[in-house]
Design brief:
It is a single chain. The protein has 347 residues and is α/β, with parallel strands linked by helices. It contains eleven helices and 13 strands. The strands form four sheets. Strands 3-2-1-4-5-6-11 form a seven-stranded parallel β-sheet, with helices on both faces. A two-stranded parallel ribbon has the order 7-10. Strand 5, helix 5 and strand 6 form a beta-alpha-beta unit. It starts with a strand and ends in a 13-residue tail after the last helix. 46% of the residues are buried. The protein binds nicotinamide-adenine-dinucleotide (NAD). Nicotinamide-adenine-dinucleotide binds next to helix 1, helix 4 and strand 5.
C-alpha cells in the first residue's frame, strides 16, 4: 500500500512510519515539523525506497490537495495534532486550529481526491485519536467504544471534535473511515516534555521528579510500538465506519509508575547514595486533571485478534535503556527554544 501518514515526525507517527516502511509499504510522511516534530525520529527509514517526506501544515488546504494529487495514496493515517495537554491549557488556540480545522482540511482534501479518483475500492481515512475524549473514570469501569464523549481539557475537546467530524464525513459523504482511540503511549522517541521522559531525564540530572497532586491519577499505559502495530492492523482489517479502542490493560497510578522507573534506574544506573525515588516531589495539580483512564480493548482483541506484546514492566525497562543509549537525541530536543516542562501548572 501507499500510505499517507500525517504527523509522521512525532512520537507515535514516527513509530508508525518506521513499522510501515519496515513491512514494505510505501509511505508519504506529511508533517509541519512543529516544536514536537523531529526528523531524527526517522533516521532508520532515511533513504528507504518508497519513503517520501513532505513538510506541509494540515491547516494549508491547497498544499494538502497538492500532496494528494502528486502522491495518490491508497490510504490515509491521520496523526498530526497538537498533543500536549499542559500546552493546551496555556494556549488552546493552536489546538483548535490544528486538531479541528486541520482535520476538517484533511477530510475535505481526502474526499475531493477520493471522489476525483472514482471512489477507489480500498481507500480509507484512518483517524487516530485518544481515550481522553471519554473524560474521566471513577475507581471502577473502563472506556468502551460506546462510552459517551465527555472531554475535560482543551486538548481532549479538540480531539473529540475531530472524531465527530470524521464520523460525520462517513455518514454524510460516505467517505470510508475508521477511528481508533488509544490510551497513554510511552517508549523510544517520546518528547522530553512528557511524564516518562521527564522522570528519566530529571532523575539522571539529579533534579526533582515532579508528580501532579498526590500521584493517584491512573493511566492505562501502552508501549508505542504495540500501538503502531495495532494501527496497521486496523488499517488492514478494521471495518469501515467502526471505531476501535486500543489499550495495554496496564493500569498504573502516576506515583507507582514513577517508583517503577526509579527502581529500574536504580538497577541500571545506580546512584552513589540512595535511590532515585528520593528525588520525587509533588507539585500543584493540573487544572481539570482526569482521575483515571482505562480502556476496554475487547473489540480489537475479539474482532481483529490484537494484543499488546509487552507488559508495562518490560516496556519501561526497554524505554529506560533507550534513553540511556540515546543522549544525543534528547539533549538536542532539550536545547530547542521554547521546550519547557509541566506548563499546565502555570495556569
Ligand atoms: P506528537 O506531538 O509527538 O506529534 C505530533 C506531530 O504532528 C509532530 O510531528 C508535529 O510536527 C505534527 N504536527 C502538529 N501540528 C501540525 C500541523 N498543523 N500540520 C502538520 N503536522 C503537524 O504527538 P503524538 O504523541 O505522536 O500523538 C500522535 C497522535 O496520536 C495525535 O493525534 C494524538 O492525539 C494521538 N494520541 C496520542 C497519545 C499519546 O499518548 N501520545 C495517545 C492516544 C492518541
Amino acid at each position: 500500500m501507499k500510505i499517507l501518514i500525517t504527523g509522521g515526525a512525532g512520537f507515535i507517527g514516527s513509530a508508525v512510519v518506521r513499522l510501515a516502511v519496515g513491512r514494505g509499504h510505501d509511505v508519504v510522511n506529511l508533517d509541519a515539523l512543529t516544536y514536537a516534530g523531529c526528523l531524527e525520529n526517522l533516521a532508520p527509514v532515511k533513504g528507504a525506497p518508497g519513503y517520501a517526506f513532505e513538510k506541509v501544515d494540515i491547516r494549508d488546504r491547497a498544499e494538502l490537495d497538492r500532496v494528494f494529487a502528486e502522491h495518490r495514496p491508497d490510504v490515509v493515517m491521520h496523526l498530526a495534532a497538537e498533543s500536549h495537554v499542559d500546552r493546551s491549557i496555556d494556549s488552546p488556540g493552536t489546538f483548535i486550529e490544528t486538531n479541528i480545522n486541520g482535520t476538517y482540511n484533511m477530510l475535505e482534501a481526502a474526499r475531493a481526491y477520493w471522489v476525483g479518483a472514482g471512489r477507489p475500492e480500498g481507500f480509507l481515512f484512518h483517524h487516530i485519536s485518544t481515550d481522553e475524549v471519554y473524560g474521566t473514570l471513577g475507581a471502577t469501569g473502563r472506556f468502551s467504544e460506546i462510552t459517551p464523549y465527555a472531554p475535560n481539557s482543551p486538548y481532549s475537546a479538540s480531539k473529540a471534535a475531530s472524531d465527530h467530524l470524521v464520523r460525520a464525513w462517513h455518514e454524510t459523504y460516505g467517505l470510508p473511515v475508521v477511528l481508533t482511540n488509544c490510551s497513554n503511549n510511552y517508549g523510544p522517541y517520546h518528547f522530553p516534555e512528557k511524564l516518562i521522559p521527564v522522570v528519566i531525564l530529571n532523575a539522571l540530572a539529579g533534579k526533582q521528579l515532579p508528580i501532579y497532586g498526590d500521584g493517584s491519577n491512573v493511566r492505562d499505559w501502552l508501549y508505542v510500538e504495540d500501538h503502531a502495530d495495532a494501527l496497521l492492523l486496523v488499517l488492514e482489517k478494521g471495518k469501515i465506519g467502526r471505531s476501535y479502542n486500543i489499550g495495554g490493560e496496564n493500569e498504573c497510578s502516576n506515583l507507582d509508575l514513577v517508583k517503577t522507573l526509579c527502581a529500574i534506574l536504580d538497577e541500571k544506573r545506580p546512584k552513589n547514595d540512595g535511590s532515585y525515588a528520593d528525588q520525587i516531589s509533588f507539585v500543584t495539580d493540573r487544572p481539570g486533571h482526569d482521575a483515571r483512564y482505562a480502556i476496554d480493548p475487547t473489540r480489537i482483541r475479539e474482532e481483529l485478534g490484537w494484543r499488546p506484546s509487552v507488559t508495562v514492566e518490560e516496556g519501561l525497562a526497554k524505554t529506560v535503556d533507550w534513553y540511556l543509549d540515546n543522549t544525543d537525541w534528547w539533549q538536542a530536543l532539550l536545547d530547542r527554544a521554547g521546550v519547557g516542562t509541566r506548563l499546565g501548572k502555570a495556569s
